Amino acid sequence: MKKVLFLTGAGISAESGIRTFRDGNGLWHEHNIMEVCSDIGFMTNRTKVLNFYDDRRADLADKIPNAAHQMIADLQREFPKSIVNITQNVDDLFEKAGCKKTIHLHGELTKIQCESCGYIKSIGYDAIGDHSICPFCKKEEMRHFVVMFGEQAPEYETLAQMLEETKLLVVIGTSGEVLPVDDFAGEVPYAILNNLEPSDAIEEECFSLVIHKKATEACHEIAQTVRSFLQTEQTKVEQ
Ligand code: NAD
Fold first, then answer.
1. How far is the CA of 107 from the centre of ligand 1 (A)?
2. Threshold 0.85, pTM exceeds
3. Three-state DSSP state, 174
4. Catalytic site includes residue 106
């Protein structure tokens, strides 16, 4: 049974130098979100959107995971059957940290997908222009593998299933503007929230523990809580 579910957002990668959307110097301030992150924006100006994601992808090349990513990778190694890692992030810092499996709800920047046949290709930090032809169907219809506003997110179904099996939910670095993390907290027996500050979109009373700190500072307390939770669960099973 999956017992601990980590659900993360842009805030966990902020200290690795990847900007969030909503913080002070966030990406929101430089870009019109509906132009570069929505299905309509993509239909209106395909090149602008592909360039935006090329920039985001190139920006990842020299970024390294921080202690919070590492904490999840370590716990996955320690408790391989009990930790599920689900993220809204499109960066590759969990993979760089050595996480065994990460479910990316909104896609991955280092991959592109053919709009015609659905083929998914990893391109690392390259610009999409170097890979514009689909290796499978040969059509020139490759696009970023990122879910934009107005598009379906197929992995939301996986998240719903995982929540049903969750005993402890740990939410880190999300404003809750995209996903109703407080509703999720209400669905599980125990839930932890770590953000820098309160968010208008999150009812913090739904969480059993709220930590307003940088993720790299909070992660030690979080790791300790998860370890003692899982050890207690283990003892219950053995009795
Ligand atoms: P958001 O930008 O809306 O909110 C960021 C949250 O992280 C805030 O609540 C803030 O308090 C918190 N935060 C900031 N720095 C933190 C730190 N050091 N430690 C702990 N918490 C910190 O992010 P969101 O809720 O993930 O929604 C934005 C959407 O944009 C997501 O769907 C995601 O796909 C996408 N996005 C992804 C990345 C990425 O892949 N790294 C970056 C920007 C945006």
1. 15
2. yes
3. coil
4. yes
Q: What 3-state DSSP class applies to 145?
A: strand
Catalytic residue of the set 106, 131, 212, 220? 106
User: Any idea where the domains of the chain sit in the sequence?
Assistant: 1-17+65-106+153-239, 19-62+107-146
Both tokens of residue 149?
């506003």
Fold for the domain defined by 19-62+107-146: SIR2/SIRT2 'Small Domain' (3.30.1600)
* 1-17+65-106+153-239 classified as CATH 3.40.50.150: no
**pLDDT mean values, one per 10 residues, the chain (239 residues):** 88 94 68 91 96 96 98 96 97 97 98 98 97 96 97 96 96 96 97 97 98 98 96 79
Task: Please tell me the residue having the least CA distance from ligand 1 atom 8.
Answer: 175
Task: Judge whether 106 and 144 are in contact, CB under 8 Å.
Answer: no
